Please model this.
Amino acid sequence: MIEPDKNCSKCKRLKKFRDINIKQYPNWFNGAVPSIINKNSEILIVGLAPGLNGANKTGRPFTGDYAGLTLFHTLKKHGLLKGHYKEDGNDNLTLKNCSITNAVRCVPPKNLPKSDEIKNCENFLKSTISYHKNLRVIVALGLISHKSIIATFNLKQKDFKFGHSNKYNLTEKIKLLDSYHCSRYNINTKRLSQKMFDEIFIETKKILLN
Ligand code: URA
Model:
């Protein structure tokens, strides 16, 4: 599996942002964040990008920010996480039958990666997907993640509209299931409720039974 170097410099703007963060927060991770990988898992969750005070600080996807609290709580509720999650990442959390990655591996300013940055990271997502030989469901958290997944499968974007709980066949074996991102913004504005997020993982597990 190809992973970006911690100091990846493919994206000039993101490298510049990282250098600023290294100066300001020298004890933080400040690098391309590696995925949480369970090679044999049937589920892959794809987020957007590390949060500044979350994954960029702790070095683990979704760890340390609001989106992570929601995601890890929900995974535990649906039997996809063992152990306890701690915001600093010093915990005994293990994922069951799932892996977590991000469409973009380095923290972008204002949580918004530019299209060339998303493109630069597509190879890493492609490699992460093909590393999972038992993969059955990819859960896309948000539009950017959805589009990156479609791009890595060389499919036409127009045939795959993003929408909460939209479901598509990517291959004969692999399905894509869309979810609104579990960001603080989406939760506060009620775009995504806990019930809606629960339904995504109920559906994920249903797919695995077929
Ligand atoms: N943290 C991540 O690692 N990814 C997201 O999409 C949001 C927060």
Helices lie at 12-24, 55-58, 66-77, 115-120, 122-131, 143-152, 184-188, 194-209. The chain has a mean pLDDT of 97. The longest helix spans residues 194-209.
